[in-house]
């Protein structure tokens, strides 16, 4: 049995900054409402023509992570790509990244677990390394939300929350027991699937039919639906549970956490978890204020920034936790 170590981290966000005031010019919203409800001040959006896409941003983050890991792209044994906003319906972004990085015939797979996508991807990669099947794995979380949101008054409660960006981690095999990814914990509960979902275009909602049935453009199911308060209620319960589950499995307590990096869903959700678990300010990392909610990309972007800012040191206990559409949720306990 081997251990999995995070050898390198990288992130990328588009240059185009969209402030709350910018959004208030195109829909009926305002800075005060957005900040009070979500903590978000601004987010990044891909600009048409800037060359970015979900896969392209993933590649940009991956190149930084590979360089920092000092691992050649030719030594990558597997690519795991987490996204809910892939460039194509099929194939997945994993194979696009493989092509863009010019890596030959290594397996590439996509994980479809929304805001929990990066934790699920990390867990998948961790199992392959721990069993000895692979040595180096590239894990990416990337999202292009701005390409699929409703920026009219109708979509305002959802579209103000999400932003674009990517983060990546290079995982490698280590022989140091007790260091690296100690454990991952995954859950899902499909009965809540509709509460945070995007129905079409899909095999259930075929675009020509949708257009024929909705000539006025009402009730179109190809914008995301979110039952905000329902999501909030479940998120704060599941986040706390899965963090405590991870700590308990490793014989740890809340005081042992050096840094909690929660999925950046909403600053109010992070603050609620912090209060519930009685964590101090310097034990929790948040950057949703700058980037909004980037779903599968939010944890690797935050982890990369925390590391770049020197907030993660060797020997620290890092806890990653996420909750999202599905509902799905999960955590990872890492000894840095
Ligand atoms: N700007 C201004 N007003 C708005 C906006 C907006 N962008 N959006 C909605 N409103 C209005 C509504 O129309 C409503 O007006 P009314 O009272 O006149 O009818 C009022 O604000 C309150 O609307 P609610 O939807 O009840 O707002 P709520 O207080 O629930 O806040 C929010 C919405 C922020 C989504 C909240 O429910 C929440 O924090 N939910 C958690 C879900 C979440 O954070 N999801 C993140 C993605 S999922 C994930 O990552 C896990």
Automatic annotation (TrEMBL):
Domain of life assignment: Bacteria
InterPro entries linked to this entry: ACP_syn_III_C, ACP_syn_III_N, FabH, Thiolase-like
Location in the cell: Cytoplasm
Catalytic reactions on record: malonyl-[ACP] + acetyl-CoA + H(+) = 3-oxobutanoyl-[ACP] + CO2 + CoA
Assigned EC number: 2.3.1.180
CDD domains, sorted: KAS_III
Pathway(s) served: Lipid metabolism; fatty acid biosynthesis
Record's function text: Catalyzes the condensation reaction of fatty acid synthesis by the addition to an acyl acceptor of two carbons from malonyl-ACP. Catalyzes the first condensation reaction which initiates fatty acid synthesis and may therefore play a role in governing the total rate of fatty acid production. Possesses both acetoacetyl-ACP synthase and acetyl transacylase activities. Its substrate specificity determines the biosynthesis of branched-chain and/or straight-chain of fatty acids.
PANTHER family cross-referenced by the UniProt entry: 3-OXOACYL-[ACYL-CARRIER-PROTEIN] SYNTHASE, BETA-KETOACYL-[ACYL-CARRIER-PROTEIN] SYNTHASE III, CHLOROPLASTIC
Subunit field text: Homodimer.
Protein name: Beta-ketoacyl-[acyl-carrier-protein] synthase III
């Amino acid at each position: 049995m081997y251990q999995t170590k995070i050898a390198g981290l990288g992130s990328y966000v588009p240059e185009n900054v969209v402030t709350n005031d910018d959004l208030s010019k195109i829909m009926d919203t305002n800075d005060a409402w957005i900040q009070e409800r979500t903590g978000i001040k601004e987010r990044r959006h891909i600009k048409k023509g800037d060359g970015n896409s979900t896969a392209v941003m993933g590649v940009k983050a991956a190149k930084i992570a590979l360089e920092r890991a000092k691992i050649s792209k030719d030594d990558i044994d597997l690519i795991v790509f987490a996204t809910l906003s892939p460039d194509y319906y099929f194939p997945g972004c994993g194979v696009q990244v493989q092509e863009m990085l010019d890596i030959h015939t290594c397996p590439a797979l996509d994980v479809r677990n929304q805001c929990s996508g990066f934790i699920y991807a990390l867990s998948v990669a961790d199992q392959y390394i721990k069993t000895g099947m692979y040595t180096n794995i590239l894990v990416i979380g990337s999202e292009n939300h701005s390409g699929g949101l409703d920026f009219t008054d109708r979509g305002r409660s959802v579209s103000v929350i999400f932003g674009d960006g990517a983060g990546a981690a290079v995982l490698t095999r280590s022989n140091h027991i007790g260091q690296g990814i100690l454990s991952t914990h995954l859950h899902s509960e499909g009965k809540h699937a509709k509460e945070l979902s995007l129905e079409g275009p899909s095999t259930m909602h075929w675009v020509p039919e949708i257009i024929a049935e909705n000539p006025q453009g009402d009730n179109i199911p190809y914008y995301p639906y979110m039952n905000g308060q329902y999501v909030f209620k479940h998120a704060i319960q599941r986040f706390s549970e899965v963090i405590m589950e991870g700590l308990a499995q490793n014989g740890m307590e809340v005081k042992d956490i050096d840094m909690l990096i929660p999925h950046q869903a909403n600053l109010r959700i992070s603050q609620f978890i912090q209060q519930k678990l009685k964590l101090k300010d310097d034990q929790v990392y948040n950057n949703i204020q700058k980037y909004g909610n980037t779903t599968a990309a939010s944890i690797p972007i935050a982890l990369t920034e925390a590391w770049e800012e020197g907030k993660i040191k060797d020997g620290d206990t890092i806890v990653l936790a996420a909750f999202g559409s599905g509902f799905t949720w999960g955590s990872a306990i890492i000894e840095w």
